[in-house]
Every structure is written in C-alpha cells, then in structure tokens.
Amino acid sequence: MLGKKKESTIDIDSLIGENIKIIGKIEGSGNLRIDGLVEGDIDYKGDIIIGETGKVKGNISCSNVSLTGKVEGNIKLKSKLTILPKGKLIGDAEVANLIIHENAYFDGNCKMIGNNTSGDKITTESQQKNK
Hints:
By secondary structure, the protein is mostly beta strands. It has one domain (14-113). Helix content is 4%, strand content 46%. The chain has one helix and 18 strands. The protein has one helix at 125-129; strands spanning 14-16, 21-23, 26-29, 32-34, 37-39, 42-45, 47-50, 55-57, 60-62, 64-67, 70-72, 75-77, 80-83, 88-90, 93-95, 97-100, 105-107, 110-112. It has a six-stranded parallel β-sheet with strand order 1-4-7-10-13-16, with no helix packed on it. It is globular, with a radius of gyration of 16 Å. Mean pLDDT is 86; it is low at 1-7 and 123-130.
C-alpha cells in the first residue's frame, strides 16, 4: 500500500467527554483524552490528548501533549508538544520537542529542555533583532 500513512493509535485510559466540565486539579497516570472542559491544573504521569472540543484553563504537567483544542495556561512536558491544525496554546511551554502544524496557534514563550547539553544559551532570530 504505497502512499498510505499508517496512523499510530494510543490506548486511552481515561476520557473527559465533550459534555463534561471539571473544576479542580486532576492527578493521575496513564493516557488521558480531554474533549470537555477542565478548569484547573493537570499533573499527569503519561500522555494527554486534547481533542478539537477540549479546553483546559490551567497548567499542564505530563510526558507528551497532542493539542487540537485550546489550552489557556502553561505546559511543562518531559518530551513532546504537538499543536495540530486548529489547536491553540495561549501560555508558555517548557518542552524537549515542539511541533507546530500549519493553522495551529501559539501565543507565549517556549523554553527547550534536555536537548542543549552544552549549556549554551539558545537565542532565536527575533531575540537577536531586538538587541
């Protein structure tokens, strides 16, 4: 089957459905999918998928995030943040890897961790222009 991408799937351990609103801190482990609204911080040991209808108003700490919905808060990850088309992050990100797709939205600062082992400060092109 040439030209076909094999989609990777992830097992979901917990689901916050589209019609669910949670107010408060969420802690847990495994893989979490959010299609509803969460108002509060999320401290998770595992991966989080935020679907197109998912919204988080709070900070997120976990391994990986795949974002198609909206996050208003800071994200601190051990590994990768992927902002897919229609995904919105309004807040800062601290990640090892960052992928921003076309038609995604990111308004904040990003601190890359783990990849810069030399200790050198990494300066973006826009930071150099402002000097």
